[in-house]
Protein backbone atom coordinates (compact mmCIF):
# COMPACT_ATOMS: atom_id res chain seq x y z
CA UNK A 1 0.00 0.00 0.00
CA UNK A 2 1.27 3.47 -0.84
CA UNK A 3 1.46 5.45 2.32
CA UNK A 4 3.53 8.15 3.94
CA UNK A 5 7.11 8.13 2.73
CA UNK A 6 6.38 5.11 0.50
CA UNK A 7 4.21 7.03 -1.98
CA UNK A 8 7.27 9.09 -2.86
CA UNK A 9 9.32 5.96 -3.47
CA UNK A 10 6.56 4.35 -5.51
CA UNK A 11 6.34 7.38 -7.79
CA UNK A 12 10.12 7.36 -8.18
CA UNK A 13 9.82 3.71 -9.17
CA UNK A 14 7.12 4.58 -11.73
CA UNK A 15 9.38 7.21 -13.32
CA UNK A 16 12.35 4.82 -13.41
CA UNK A 17 10.17 2.15 -15.06
CA UNK A 18 8.85 4.74 -17.53
CA UNK A 19 12.42 5.59 -18.60
CA UNK A 20 13.23 1.91 -19.05
CA UNK A 21 10.10 1.37 -21.13
CA UNK A 22 10.86 4.41 -23.30
CA UNK A 23 14.41 3.17 -23.86
CA UNK A 24 13.21 -0.30 -24.83
CA UNK A 25 10.75 1.28 -27.28
CA UNK A 26 13.56 3.35 -28.81
CA UNK A 27 11.92 6.65 -27.85
CA UNK A 28 15.02 7.76 -25.97
CA UNK A 29 18.61 6.51 -26.20
CA UNK A 30 19.52 3.57 -23.99
CA UNK A 31 21.62 4.95 -21.16
CA UNK A 32 21.72 4.71 -17.40
CA UNK A 33 19.22 6.95 -15.67
CA UNK A 34 19.99 8.86 -12.46
CA UNK A 35 17.69 8.76 -9.45
CA UNK A 36 14.43 10.67 -10.14
CA UNK A 37 14.97 12.68 -6.92
CA UNK A 38 11.42 13.85 -6.37
CA UNK A 39 10.95 17.27 -4.82
CA UNK A 40 8.02 19.19 -3.42
CA UNK A 41 7.16 22.06 -5.80
CA UNK A 42 7.09 25.48 -4.15
CA UNK A 43 3.84 26.34 -5.96
CA UNK A 44 0.84 24.02 -5.34
CA UNK A 45 -0.41 24.42 -8.92
CA UNK A 46 2.67 22.50 -10.08
CA UNK A 47 1.43 19.35 -8.34
CA UNK A 48 2.47 17.30 -5.33
CA UNK A 49 5.84 16.10 -6.62
CA UNK A 50 8.25 17.22 -9.32
CA UNK A 51 11.30 15.59 -10.90
CA UNK A 52 14.08 17.45 -12.70
CA UNK A 53 15.50 14.20 -14.05
CA UNK A 54 15.01 15.21 -17.74
CA UNK A 55 17.25 18.24 -17.15
CA UNK A 56 19.98 16.02 -15.76
CA UNK A 57 19.51 13.32 -18.41
CA UNK A 58 19.21 15.59 -21.46
CA UNK A 59 22.91 15.88 -22.31
CA UNK A 60 23.52 12.13 -22.05
CA UNK A 61 20.37 11.41 -24.09
CA UNK A 62 21.15 14.15 -26.64
CA UNK A 63 17.58 15.46 -26.42
CA UNK A 64 15.79 18.66 -25.52
CA UNK A 65 14.91 18.35 -21.80
CA UNK A 66 11.26 19.30 -22.32
CA UNK A 67 10.88 16.73 -25.12
CA UNK A 68 12.53 14.17 -22.87
CA UNK A 69 10.16 15.06 -20.04
CA UNK A 70 7.15 14.57 -22.34
CA UNK A 71 8.34 11.14 -23.45
CA UNK A 72 8.91 9.98 -19.85
CA UNK A 73 5.66 11.50 -18.57
CA UNK A 74 3.74 9.73 -21.31
CA UNK A 75 5.00 6.42 -19.95
CA UNK A 76 4.01 7.08 -16.31
CA UNK A 77 0.57 5.56 -15.68
CA UNK A 78 -2.09 7.58 -13.90
CA UNK A 79 -4.84 6.12 -11.74
CA UNK A 80 -5.07 5.14 -8.12
CA UNK A 81 -2.94 7.55 -6.15
CA UNK A 82 -1.76 9.43 -9.25
CA UNK A 83 -4.29 11.80 -10.75
CA UNK A 84 -2.11 13.33 -13.45
CA UNK A 85 1.42 13.49 -14.83
CA UNK A 86 2.34 16.72 -16.60
CA UNK A 87 5.43 18.50 -17.85
CA UNK A 88 6.66 22.06 -17.47
CA UNK A 89 9.54 24.06 -18.96
CA UNK A 90 12.43 23.78 -19.05
CA UNK A 91 12.12 20.03 -18.37
CA UNK A 92 10.19 19.09 -15.24
CA UNK A 93 7.83 16.18 -14.68
CA UNK A 94 5.00 17.17 -12.30
CA UNK A 95 2.82 14.61 -10.52
CA UNK A 96 -0.47 15.37 -8.82
CA UNK A 97 -2.08 13.01 -6.34
CA UNK A 98 -5.80 12.31 -6.65
CA UNK A 99 -8.25 13.92 -4.24
CA UNK A 100 -9.92 10.56 -3.62
CA UNK A 101 -6.64 8.94 -2.65
CA UNK A 102 -5.66 11.86 -0.42
CA UNK A 103 -8.98 11.70 1.43
CA UNK A 104 -8.58 7.95 1.95
CA UNK A 105 -5.30 8.59 3.81
CA UNK A 106 -7.28 10.08 6.72
CA UNK A 107 -8.62 6.63 7.59
CA UNK A 108 -5.09 5.26 7.38
CA UNK A 109 -3.65 7.94 9.67
CA UNK A 110 -6.33 7.26 12.26
CA UNK A 111 -5.67 3.53 11.98
CA UNK A 112 -1.90 3.90 12.42
CA UNK A 113 -2.39 6.33 15.31
CA UNK A 114 0.61 7.47 17.32
CA UNK A 115 2.96 5.45 15.12
CA UNK A 116 2.19 7.68 12.15
CA UNK A 117 5.48 9.06 10.89
CA UNK A 118 7.47 5.88 11.49
CA UNK A 119 9.53 4.67 8.51
CA UNK A 120 11.64 1.48 8.16
CA UNK A 121 14.85 3.24 7.09
CA UNK A 122 17.14 2.02 9.89
CA UNK A 123 16.05 -1.62 9.75
CA UNK A 124 16.99 -2.11 13.39
CA UNK A 125 20.64 -1.02 13.04
CA UNK A 126 22.23 0.03 16.32
CA UNK A 127 22.94 3.74 16.43
CA UNK A 128 24.28 5.76 19.32
CA UNK A 129 23.69 9.47 19.78
CA UNK A 130 26.09 11.05 22.26
CA UNK A 131 25.31 14.65 23.08
CA UNK A 132 26.08 17.40 25.59
CA UNK A 133 28.54 15.37 27.74
CA UNK A 134 29.43 18.61 29.52
CA UNK A 135 32.18 18.32 32.08
CA UNK A 136 30.63 17.74 35.54
CA UNK A 137 32.26 20.85 36.95
CA UNK A 138 29.25 23.17 36.77
CA UNK A 139 25.59 23.33 35.83
CA UNK A 140 24.41 22.73 32.27
CA UNK A 141 24.62 26.13 30.59
CA UNK A 142 22.45 27.59 27.86
CA UNK A 143 24.95 26.70 25.14
CA UNK A 144 24.83 23.05 26.23
CA UNK A 145 21.06 23.33 25.96
CA UNK A 146 21.26 23.75 22.22
CA UNK A 147 23.24 20.52 21.88
CA UNK A 148 20.78 18.88 24.24
CA UNK A 149 17.75 19.78 22.11
CA UNK A 150 19.52 18.84 18.86
CA UNK A 151 20.77 15.50 20.16
CA UNK A 152 17.54 14.40 21.80
CA UNK A 153 15.41 15.44 18.82
CA UNK A 154 17.73 13.55 16.49
CA UNK A 155 17.49 10.47 18.71
CA UNK A 156 13.70 10.65 18.63
CA UNK A 157 13.58 11.03 14.85
CA UNK A 158 16.13 8.27 14.25
CA UNK A 159 14.11 5.94 16.46
CA UNK A 160 11.01 6.77 14.40
CA UNK A 161 13.11 5.96 11.32
CA UNK A 162 13.63 2.41 12.53
CA UNK A 163 17.03 2.58 14.23
CA UNK A 164 17.73 1.00 17.60
CA UNK A 165 18.84 4.08 19.51
CA UNK A 166 21.01 4.63 22.56
CA UNK A 167 21.35 8.10 24.06
CA UNK A 168 24.65 8.44 25.90
CA UNK A 169 26.23 11.03 28.15
CA UNK A 170 30.00 10.83 28.59
CA UNK A 171 30.87 11.82 32.14
CA UNK A 172 34.34 13.41 31.99
CA UNK A 173 35.28 12.31 35.50
CA UNK A 174 39.00 12.13 34.75
CA UNK A 175 41.50 14.85 33.90
CA UNK A 176 42.57 18.31 34.99
CA UNK A 177 39.16 19.98 34.90
CA UNK A 178 37.61 17.73 37.52
CA UNK A 179 40.81 18.02 39.55
CA UNK A 180 40.46 21.81 39.50
CA UNK A 181 36.78 21.38 40.35
CA UNK A 182 37.68 19.21 43.37
CA UNK A 183 40.33 21.69 44.53
CA UNK A 184 37.76 24.51 44.31
CA UNK A 185 35.21 22.46 46.22
CA UNK A 186 37.76 21.64 48.91
CA UNK A 187 38.58 25.35 49.28
CA UNK A 188 34.87 26.12 49.81
CA UNK A 189 34.54 23.18 52.19
CA UNK A 190 37.46 24.44 54.30
CA UNK A 191 36.05 27.99 54.31
CA UNK A 192 32.82 26.69 55.85
CA UNK A 193 34.89 25.45 58.78
CA UNK A 194 36.62 28.79 59.18
CA UNK A 195 39.86 28.01 57.43
CA UNK A 196 41.49 30.48 55.06
CA UNK A 197 41.62 28.78 51.69
CA UNK A 198 41.93 30.34 48.26
CA UNK A 199 40.11 29.17 45.16
CA UNK A 200 42.78 27.75 42.85
CA UNK A 201 43.75 29.52 39.64
CA UNK A 202 41.25 28.61 36.95
CA UNK A 203 38.78 27.45 39.61
CA UNK A 204 34.99 27.72 39.60
CA UNK A 205 33.62 30.78 41.45
CA UNK A 206 29.90 30.09 41.08
CA UNK A 207 27.65 29.94 44.15
CA UNK A 208 26.77 26.35 43.31
CA UNK A 209 30.18 25.32 44.66
CA UNK A 210 29.27 26.75 48.07
CA UNK A 211 25.98 24.82 47.94
CA UNK A 212 27.80 21.54 47.30
CA UNK A 213 30.29 22.25 50.08
CA UNK A 214 27.37 22.89 52.47
CA UNK A 215 25.81 19.57 51.45
CA UNK A 216 29.07 17.76 52.14
CA UNK A 217 29.29 19.36 55.57
CA UNK A 218 25.72 18.32 56.35
CA UNK A 219 26.30 14.75 55.18
CA UNK A 220 29.91 14.15 56.25
CA UNK A 221 30.65 16.73 58.92
CA UNK A 222 34.35 17.57 59.05
CA UNK A 223 35.46 14.07 58.08
CA UNK A 224 36.78 15.29 54.71
CA UNK A 225 39.14 17.84 56.24
CA UNK A 226 42.84 17.15 55.98
CA UNK A 227 45.63 18.92 57.89
CA UNK A 228 46.20 22.47 56.61
CA UNK A 229 48.29 22.51 53.42
CA UNK A 230 47.48 18.95 52.40
CA UNK A 231 45.55 18.30 49.14
CA UNK A 232 41.91 17.28 49.08
CA UNK A 233 41.07 13.63 49.80
CA UNK A 234 40.25 11.58 46.65
CA UNK A 235 36.84 10.80 48.13
CA UNK A 236 35.88 14.48 47.93
CA UNK A 237 36.53 14.48 44.19
CA UNK A 238 34.15 11.57 43.65
CA UNK A 239 31.47 12.94 45.97
CA UNK A 240 31.58 16.34 44.26
CA UNK A 241 31.38 14.92 40.74
CA UNK A 242 28.49 12.65 41.77
CA UNK A 243 26.56 15.64 43.13
CA UNK A 244 27.18 17.60 39.93
CA UNK A 245 25.94 14.66 37.86
CA UNK A 246 22.81 14.46 40.04
CA UNK A 247 22.21 18.17 39.42
CA UNK A 248 22.69 17.70 35.68
CA UNK A 249 20.15 14.86 35.72
CA UNK A 250 17.61 17.11 37.47
CA UNK A 251 18.11 19.80 34.83
CA UNK A 252 17.68 17.20 32.10
CA UNK A 253 14.45 15.96 33.68
CA UNK A 254 13.15 19.53 33.58
CA UNK A 255 13.53 19.52 29.79
CA UNK A 256 12.28 15.93 29.29
CA UNK A 257 15.62 14.38 28.34
CA UNK A 258 16.52 10.93 29.62
CA UNK A 259 19.75 9.19 28.72
CA UNK A 260 19.96 5.45 28.22
CA UNK A 261 23.54 5.30 29.44
CA UNK A 262 25.93 7.42 31.51
CA UNK A 263 29.46 6.45 30.55
CA UNK A 264 32.37 7.13 32.90
CA UNK A 265 35.59 8.33 31.28
CA UNK A 266 37.49 6.77 34.18
CA UNK A 267 36.17 3.35 33.20
CA UNK A 268 38.28 3.49 30.04
CA UNK A 269 41.38 3.27 32.22
CA UNK A 270 40.01 0.92 34.89
CA UNK A 271 38.95 -1.85 32.49
CA UNK A 272 41.99 -1.65 30.16
CA UNK A 273 40.00 -0.23 27.23
CA UNK A 274 42.57 2.52 26.86
CA UNK A 275 45.47 0.05 26.69
CA UNK A 276 43.61 -2.10 24.14
CA UNK A 277 42.92 0.90 21.90
CA UNK A 278 46.53 2.10 22.07
CA UNK A 279 47.74 -1.44 21.38
CA UNK A 280 45.64 -1.62 18.24
CA UNK A 281 47.03 1.71 17.02
CA UNK A 282 50.58 0.43 17.60
CA UNK A 283 49.82 -2.73 15.61
CA UNK A 284 48.58 -0.56 12.76
CA UNK A 285 51.64 1.67 12.84
CA UNK A 286 49.69 4.75 13.89
CA UNK A 287 51.77 5.73 16.90
CA UNK A 288 55.15 7.43 17.06
CA UNK A 289 57.33 8.46 19.99
CA UNK A 290 59.37 11.64 19.95
CA UNK A 291 60.17 14.62 22.16
CA UNK A 292 59.33 12.37 25.10
CA UNK A 293 55.67 12.18 24.06
CA UNK A 294 53.49 9.72 22.14
CA UNK A 295 51.92 11.00 18.91
CA UNK A 296 49.07 9.76 16.77
CA UNK A 297 50.23 9.53 13.17
CA UNK A 298 47.90 9.23 10.22
CA UNK A 299 47.92 10.50 6.62
CA UNK A 300 46.41 13.92 6.08
CA UNK A 301 46.68 15.13 9.66
CA UNK A 302 49.73 17.31 9.09
CA UNK A 303 51.82 15.17 11.42
CA UNK A 304 55.37 16.45 11.46
CA UNK A 305 58.63 15.56 13.16
CA UNK A 306 59.54 19.22 12.99
CA UNK A 307 59.81 20.56 16.56
CA UNK A 308 58.25 23.76 15.22
CA UNK A 309 55.04 21.99 14.27
CA UNK A 310 51.89 24.10 14.41
CA UNK A 311 49.38 23.97 17.26
CA UNK A 312 46.89 21.78 15.32
CA UNK A 313 49.70 19.33 14.57
CA UNK A 314 50.67 19.23 18.23
CA UNK A 315 47.07 18.38 19.06
CA UNK A 316 47.94 14.92 17.68
CA UNK A 317 49.80 14.15 20.92
CA UNK A 318 48.03 11.35 22.76
CA UNK A 319 50.38 10.91 25.72
CA UNK A 320 52.25 13.91 27.11
CA UNK A 321 55.88 13.76 28.15
CA UNK A 322 54.59 13.53 31.74
CA UNK A 323 52.98 10.19 30.86
CA UNK A 324 49.46 11.61 31.17
CA UNK A 325 47.01 10.71 28.36
CA UNK A 326 45.47 13.67 26.54
CA UNK A 327 41.81 14.34 25.89
CA UNK A 328 42.40 13.04 22.36
CA UNK A 329 43.69 9.73 23.75
CA UNK A 330 40.58 9.33 25.91
CA UNK A 331 38.37 10.04 22.92
CA UNK A 332 40.15 7.43 20.81
CA UNK A 333 39.65 4.84 23.55
CA UNK A 334 36.04 5.95 23.97
CA UNK A 335 35.28 5.41 20.28
CA UNK A 336 37.16 2.11 20.33
CA UNK A 337 34.70 1.12 23.05
CA UNK A 338 31.70 2.37 21.05
CA UNK A 339 32.51 0.65 17.79
CA UNK A 340 34.70 -2.37 18.59
CA UNK A 341 33.47 -3.39 22.05
CA UNK A 342 29.82 -2.36 22.06
CA UNK A 343 29.37 -2.82 18.32
CA UNK A 344 27.34 0.20 17.28
CA UNK A 345 26.71 0.34 13.53
CA UNK A 346 26.74 4.12 13.54
CA UNK A 347 27.64 6.83 16.05
CA UNK A 348 26.49 10.45 16.03
CA UNK A 349 28.41 12.84 18.28
CA UNK A 350 26.91 16.29 18.92
CA UNK A 351 29.67 18.71 19.93
CA UNK A 352 29.97 22.42 20.65
CA UNK A 353 31.74 24.85 18.33
CA UNK A 354 34.94 24.74 20.40
CA UNK A 355 35.49 21.14 19.23
CA UNK A 356 35.52 21.97 15.51
CA UNK A 357 39.27 21.37 15.17
CA UNK A 358 38.95 17.95 16.80
CA UNK A 359 36.73 16.55 14.01
CA UNK A 360 39.38 15.55 11.40
CA UNK A 361 41.58 14.00 14.10
CA UNK A 362 38.69 11.94 15.42
CA UNK A 363 37.69 10.78 11.94
CA UNK A 364 41.29 9.76 11.24
CA UNK A 365 41.52 7.96 14.58
CA UNK A 366 38.36 5.95 13.91
CA UNK A 367 39.74 4.95 10.50
CA UNK A 368 43.01 3.94 12.17
CA UNK A 369 41.02 1.64 14.45
CA UNK A 370 39.69 -0.14 11.36
CA UNK A 371 36.24 1.47 11.42
CA UNK A 372 34.69 3.11 8.36
CA UNK A 373 34.91 6.83 9.24
CA UNK A 374 31.57 7.38 7.49
CA UNK A 375 29.99 5.49 10.37
CA UNK A 376 30.95 8.36 12.67
CA UNK A 377 29.05 11.61 12.16
CA UNK A 378 30.06 14.63 14.20
CA UNK A 379 27.60 17.51 14.35
CA UNK A 380 29.03 20.84 15.45
CA UNK A 381 26.56 23.37 16.82
CA UNK A 382 27.26 27.08 17.09
CA UNK A 383 26.84 29.52 19.95
CA UNK A 384 23.64 30.92 21.41
CA UNK A 385 23.06 34.56 22.29
CA UNK A 386 20.28 35.19 24.80
CA UNK A 387 18.31 38.39 24.36
CA UNK A 388 15.44 40.28 25.86
CA UNK A 389 14.23 42.12 22.81
CA UNK A 390 17.27 44.07 21.60
CA UNK A 391 19.20 43.67 24.87
CA UNK A 392 21.77 40.88 25.23
CA UNK A 393 21.67 38.86 28.46
CA UNK A 394 25.18 38.25 29.78
CA UNK A 395 25.18 37.43 33.49
CA UNK A 396 23.81 34.54 35.53
CA UNK A 397 22.21 34.76 38.92
CA UNK A 398 23.77 31.53 40.15
CA UNK A 399 26.77 30.48 38.10
CA UNK A 400 28.96 33.53 37.64
CA UNK A 401 29.88 34.03 34.00
CA UNK A 402 27.53 31.46 32.45
CA UNK A 403 23.77 31.45 31.96
CA UNK A 404 22.44 28.12 33.18
CA UNK A 405 19.94 26.14 31.16
CA UNK A 406 17.75 25.79 34.25
CA UNK A 407 17.41 29.58 34.54
CA UNK A 408 16.10 29.76 30.97
CA UNK A 409 13.75 26.79 31.47
CA UNK A 410 12.33 28.37 34.63
CA UNK A 411 11.70 31.63 32.77
CA UNK A 412 10.22 30.51 29.43
CA UNK A 413 9.38 26.81 29.88
CA UNK A 414 10.94 23.62 28.55
CA UNK A 415 8.84 23.52 25.36
CA UNK A 416 9.93 27.00 24.28
CA UNK A 417 13.56 26.13 24.98
CA UNK A 418 13.45 22.95 22.93
CA UNK A 419 11.55 24.45 20.00
CA UNK A 420 13.83 27.46 19.71
CA UNK A 421 17.06 25.50 20.04
CA UNK A 422 16.03 23.10 17.26
CA UNK A 423 14.66 25.79 14.95
CA UNK A 424 17.99 26.79 13.42
CA UNK A 425 20.55 24.70 11.55
CA UNK A 426 23.25 23.51 13.93
CA UNK A 427 26.01 25.30 12.02
CA UNK A 428 24.37 28.73 12.31
CA UNK A 429 24.68 31.11 15.25
CA UNK A 430 21.33 31.76 16.92
CA UNK A 431 19.72 34.53 18.92
CA UNK A 432 17.14 33.39 21.49
CA UNK A 433 14.69 36.14 22.45
CA UNK A 434 13.36 35.32 25.92
CA UNK A 435 10.59 37.92 25.68
CA UNK A 436 9.27 36.52 22.40
CA UNK A 437 9.43 32.96 23.80
CA UNK A 438 7.03 33.97 26.61
CA UNK A 439 4.60 35.92 24.43
CA UNK A 440 1.15 34.37 24.08
CA UNK A 441 0.45 35.48 20.55
CA UNK A 442 0.82 34.28 16.98
CA UNK A 443 4.19 36.06 16.83
CA UNK A 444 5.54 33.32 19.09
CA UNK A 445 5.84 30.14 16.95
CA UNK A 446 5.78 27.88 20.02
CA UNK A 447 2.49 29.34 21.19
CA UNK A 448 1.12 29.28 17.62
CA UNK A 449 1.84 25.57 17.14
CA UNK A 450 0.69 24.44 20.57
CA UNK A 451 -2.43 26.59 20.33
CA UNK A 452 -3.36 24.65 17.18
CA UNK A 453 -3.29 21.40 19.18
CA UNK A 454 -5.28 22.94 22.01
CA UNK A 455 -7.80 24.22 19.48
CA UNK A 456 -8.15 20.75 17.99
CA UNK A 457 -8.64 19.23 21.44
CA UNK A 458 -11.33 21.81 22.18
CA UNK A 459 -13.17 21.05 18.93
CA UNK A 460 -13.19 17.32 19.64
CA UNK A 461 -14.35 17.86 23.23
CA UNK A 462 -17.19 20.10 22.07
CA UNK A 463 -18.14 17.65 19.32
CA UNK A 464 -18.35 14.73 21.74
CA UNK A 465 -21.38 16.36 23.34
CA UNK A 466 -23.26 16.11 20.04
CA UNK A 467 -21.69 13.15 18.26
CA UNK A 468 -20.56 10.26 20.42
CA UNK A 469 -18.74 8.34 17.69
CA UNK A 470 -17.46 9.59 14.33
CA UNK A 471 -15.32 6.56 13.50
CA UNK A 472 -17.73 5.66 10.68
CA UNK A 473 -17.26 9.06 9.03
CA UNK A 474 -17.04 8.84 5.23
CA UNK A 475 -13.74 10.50 4.27
CA UNK A 476 -14.72 10.56 0.58
CA UNK A 477 -16.79 13.62 1.51
CA UNK A 478 -13.55 15.55 2.16
CA UNK A 479 -13.23 17.45 -1.11
CA UNK A 480 -12.71 21.09 -0.08
CA UNK A 481 -9.31 22.44 -1.10
CA UNK A 482 -8.52 23.42 2.52
CA UNK A 483 -9.28 19.86 3.63
CA UNK A 484 -7.03 18.40 0.95
CA UNK A 485 -4.28 20.92 1.73
CA UNK A 486 -4.34 19.83 5.38
CA UNK A 487 -4.14 16.16 4.37
CA UNK A 488 -1.23 16.88 2.03
CA UNK A 489 0.59 18.61 4.85
CA UNK A 490 -0.06 15.71 7.26
CA UNK A 491 1.31 13.20 4.76
CA UNK A 492 4.63 15.03 4.72
CA UNK A 493 5.57 13.85 8.22
CA UNK A 494 6.88 10.37 7.27
CA UNK A 495 8.85 11.92 4.41
CA UNK A 496 10.29 14.46 6.83
CA UNK A 497 11.31 11.76 9.31
CA UNK A 498 13.12 9.95 6.52
CA UNK A 499 14.78 13.15 5.27
CA UNK A 500 15.98 14.17 8.75
CA UNK A 501 17.26 10.66 9.44
CA UNK A 502 19.35 10.91 6.26
CA UNK A 503 20.52 14.51 6.64
CA UNK A 504 20.64 14.69 10.46
CA UNK A 505 19.12 18.18 10.24
CA UNK A 506 16.28 18.34 12.79
CA UNK A 507 15.69 22.09 12.28
CA UNK A 508 13.21 21.08 9.56
CA UNK A 509 10.75 19.86 12.23
CA UNK A 510 9.82 23.23 13.79
CA UNK A 511 9.15 24.69 10.33
CA UNK A 512 6.96 21.74 9.46
CA UNK A 513 5.08 22.14 12.75
CA UNK A 514 4.32 25.78 11.88
CA UNK A 515 3.17 24.81 8.37
CA UNK A 516 0.94 22.06 9.76
CA UNK A 517 -0.59 24.42 12.32
CA UNK A 518 -1.18 27.00 9.57
CA UNK A 519 -2.87 24.39 7.37
CA UNK A 520 -5.15 23.42 10.23
CA UNK A 521 -6.05 27.01 11.13
CA UNK A 522 -6.84 27.66 7.45
CA UNK A 523 -9.03 24.57 7.26
CA UNK A 524 -10.87 25.56 10.43
CA UNK A 525 -11.57 29.06 9.11
CA UNK A 526 -12.88 27.80 5.77
CA UNK A 527 -14.66 24.56 6.70
CA UNK A 528 -17.27 24.41 9.43
CA UNK A 529 -16.63 21.20 11.34
CA UNK A 530 -19.99 20.86 13.12
CA UNK A 531 -22.98 21.61 10.92
CA UNK A 532 -26.47 20.36 10.15
CA UNK A 533 -24.93 17.93 7.67
CA UNK A 534 -24.25 15.03 10.04
CA UNK A 535 -22.34 12.95 7.47
CA UNK A 536 -19.98 15.82 6.59
CA UNK A 537 -19.53 16.66 10.27
CA UNK A 538 -18.42 13.10 11.00
CA UNK A 539 -16.00 13.12 8.08
CA UNK A 540 -14.49 16.41 9.20
CA UNK A 541 -14.24 15.24 12.80
CA UNK A 542 -12.26 12.27 11.57
CA UNK A 543 -9.98 14.68 9.71
CA UNK A 544 -9.60 16.78 12.85
CA UNK A 545 -8.77 13.63 14.84
CA UNK A 546 -6.11 12.73 12.29
CA UNK A 547 -4.69 16.26 12.45
CA UNK A 548 -4.47 15.95 16.22
CA UNK A 549 -2.49 12.72 15.92
CA UNK A 550 -0.04 14.17 13.40
CA UNK A 551 0.49 17.43 15.27
CA UNK A 552 0.95 15.63 18.58
CA UNK A 553 3.48 13.26 16.96
CA UNK A 554 5.37 16.22 15.51
CA UNK A 555 5.55 17.88 18.92
CA UNK A 556 6.60 14.58 20.48
CA UNK A 557 9.48 14.22 18.01
CA UNK A 558 10.73 17.57 19.30
CA UNK A 559 10.26 16.45 22.91
CA UNK A 560 7.44 18.94 23.44
CA UNK A 561 4.06 18.62 25.11
CA UNK A 562 0.74 18.72 23.26
CA UNK A 563 -1.53 20.83 25.51
CA UNK A 564 -5.26 20.19 25.68
CA UNK A 565 -6.02 23.82 26.52
CA UNK A 566 -4.19 27.14 26.62
Description:
This protein is an alpha/beta fold and 566 residues long. It has 21 helices and 14 strands. The strands form 4 sheets. A 5-stranded parallel sheet has the order 6-5-4-10-11, sandwiched between helices. Helix 6 packs across helix 7 (207-220), helix 14 packs across helix 15 (414-422) and helix 20 runs antiparallel to helix 21 (534-557). Mean pLDDT is 92; it is low at 1-5 and 303-312.
Please sum up the structure shown.
This protein is of the alpha/beta class. The protein contains 21 helices and 14 strands. It has helices spanning 5-24, 53-61, 65-75, 99-112, 142-160, 176-192, 207-220, 234-254, 267-270, 273-283, 311-314, 327-341, 359-368, 405-412, 414-422, 434-438, 445-464, 481-490, 492-503, 508-526, 534-557; strands at residues 49-51, 82-88, 92-97, 126-131, 164-171, 261-264, 287-290, 293-296, 317-319, 346-352, 376-381, 384-388, 391-392, 430-433.
Amino acid sequence: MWFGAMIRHEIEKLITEAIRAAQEAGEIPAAGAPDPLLERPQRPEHGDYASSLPLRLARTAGMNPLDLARVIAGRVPSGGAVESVDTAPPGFINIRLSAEWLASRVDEIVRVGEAFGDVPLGEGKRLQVEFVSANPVGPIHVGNGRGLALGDTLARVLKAAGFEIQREYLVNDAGTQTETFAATLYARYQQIFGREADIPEGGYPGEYMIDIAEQLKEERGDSLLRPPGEPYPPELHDLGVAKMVDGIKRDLAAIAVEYDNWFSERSLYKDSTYEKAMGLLRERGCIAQREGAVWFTAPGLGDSQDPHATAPQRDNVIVRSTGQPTYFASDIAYHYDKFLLRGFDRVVDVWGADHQGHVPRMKAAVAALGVDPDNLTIIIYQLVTLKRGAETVRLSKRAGEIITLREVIDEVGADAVRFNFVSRAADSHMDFDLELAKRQSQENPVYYVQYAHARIAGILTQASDRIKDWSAGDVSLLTHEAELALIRKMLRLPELVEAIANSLEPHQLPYYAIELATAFHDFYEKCRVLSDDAALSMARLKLVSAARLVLARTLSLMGMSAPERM
